[in-house]
Inverse folding.
């Protein structure tokens, strides 16, 4: 029996929290003014995208004690932006990245339940677990959370939030004018939650929202992060956008679902992807080369180099070879607030790999950084890009992509105007929204309130019993 053709899911990541956003391009606009968000959201909705996605950094990154101004810094608050966008869009899902280390479940649950109400069921929460003490300095509790506890807290945070979302069944408000009775149940929203991280009790004060709870995304890549996603998330925002890496990640995470009694289609895999379009493949390749040079100026190359070398290299010539001196193996002091820093692992070993690559390909420092930080997933004519996206989805390397344009806010326009129609012609992408809520767009079954004392029939539970709802099959 031949496999049914998969429908592609597309989302739009608002650019602006790293150097891949080309703010210096004449076409680039503000990443702070509301008009930019409106343009971007409306373009995504015109393209019938599943959702708009906001990443979030809770502290401005620093390098050598200064704000790292080669990143685009200073994005306004996630909930405020998404709530405002709810008013200027009708169908587009609205996904916000909110950290489980530095926030409180009651507050976050209130905010997401409110966003789900205001948007008519379009809210999604990307649960991230960044824990670093540098970011923690902004918060009352500081950087108290050791790295190895980040998912223990995330699991109980999410479970607590689900208890709050589920504390209203949805039928409590009757507002009967004749009898003057407003609430059927005089005590809706009651909850008590006690564990090592949270000790809270009371009444949740936002009635059940259209989706029951926001759609849950997860973005961590460690084994524990994957397990967390398999246990309770609806979708993963992954780094693995190529065929081989994508298929390996996809198979690995989907395999984990059975452990939690969940089916393969209850967790979508959506890698981040960038794109460069041209009238022809050759033209796109030329533009892509220029974009890479815009993204990695000589100055940016030095900053990347310093992150690995853990030294001040401000005097280094970016157009010359890599530094002869070895990286400083001591505690990392140069760049702060950047998760990628810890991904370098053994700094000397990585530096030696970079040296070998630079020598083999005869690359200057800047050319090498351009090569190793290259993140251009799709390059080509609209037809080439449409085929590449469809091939990856049909080959189970993903269920779709979260597209990250390099220009704010117009970087999505060309994709929506030229690639989306080709995907629609092939019958692999919707021509109209068929449902109302984000769960509808993602093909996830609606949730119904759990009867008290039962567990979630979807099997989706971040850490044991007490979920808000079960999926209707
Ligand atoms: C594709 C991707 C996007 C992420 N986006 C954010 C973000 O916007 N904000 C944030 O604080 N962390 C972000 N993270 C960090 C992770 O959510 C997670 O907190 C961190 O990687 C530690 O978990 P891990 O060890 O499982 O990877 C992202 C991670 C990935 C893989």
């Amino acid at each position: 029996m031949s496999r049914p053709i998969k429908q592609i899911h597309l989302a739009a990541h608002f650019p602006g929290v790293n150097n891949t956003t080309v703010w210096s391009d004449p076409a680039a606009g503000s990443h702070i003014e509301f008009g930019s968000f409106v343009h971007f959201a409306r373009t995504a909705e015109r393209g019938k995208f599943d959702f708009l996605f906001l990443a979030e950094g809770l502290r401005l990154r620093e390098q050598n004690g200064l704000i790292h101004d080669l990143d685009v810094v200073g994005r306004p608050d996630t909930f405020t932006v998404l709530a405002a966008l709810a008013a200027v869009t009708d169908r587009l899902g609205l996904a916000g990245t909110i950290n489980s280390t530095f926030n409180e479940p009651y507050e976050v649950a209130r905010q997401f339940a409110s966003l789900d109400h205001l948007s008519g069921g379009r809210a999604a929460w990307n649960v991230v677990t960044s824990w670093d003490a540098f970011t923690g300095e902004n918060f009352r509790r500081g950087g108290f959370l050791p790295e190895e506890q980040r998912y223990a807290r995330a699991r109980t945070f999410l479970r607590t939030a689900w208890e709050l979302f589920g504390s209203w069944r949805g039928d409590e408000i009757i507002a009967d004018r004749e009898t003057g009775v407003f609430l059927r149940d005089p005590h809706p929203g009651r909850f008590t939650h006690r564990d090592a991280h949270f000790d809270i009790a009371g009444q949740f004060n936002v009635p059940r929202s259209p989706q029951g709870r926001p759609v849950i995304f997860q973005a961590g890549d460690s084994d524990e992060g994957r397990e967390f996603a398999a246990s309770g998330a609806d979708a993963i925002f992954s780094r693995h956008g190529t065929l081989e890496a994508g298929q390996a990640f996809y198979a690995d995470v989907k395999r984990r679902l059975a452990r939690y009694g969940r089916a393969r289609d209850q967790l979508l895999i959506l890698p981040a992807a960038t794109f460069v379009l041209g009238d022809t493949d050759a033209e796109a390749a030329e533009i892509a080369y220029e974009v890479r040079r815009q993204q990695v100026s000589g100055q940016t190359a030095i900053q990347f180099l310093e992150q690995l070398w853990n030294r001040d290299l401000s005097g280094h010539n970016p157009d010359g070879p890599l530094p002869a001196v070895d990286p400083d193996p001591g505690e990392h002091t140069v760049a702060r607030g950047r998760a990628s820093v810890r991904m370098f692992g053994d700094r000397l070993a990585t530096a030696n790999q970079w040296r070998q690559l630079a020598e083999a390909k005869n690359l200057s420092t800047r050319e090498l950084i351009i090569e190793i930080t290259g993140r251009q997933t799709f390059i080509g004519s609209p037809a080439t890009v449409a085929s590449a996206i469809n091939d990856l989805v049909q080959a189970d390397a993903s269920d779709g992509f979260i597209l990250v344009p390099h220009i704010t806010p117009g970087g999505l326009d060309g994709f929506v105007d030229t690639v989306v129609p080709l995907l629609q012609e092939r019958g692999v992408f919707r021509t109209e929204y068929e449902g109302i809520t984000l769960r509808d767009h993602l093909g996830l079954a609606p949730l119904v309130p759990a009867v008290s004392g039962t567990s979630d029939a979807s099997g989706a539970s971040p850490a044991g019993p007490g979920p808000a709802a079960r999926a209707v099959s």
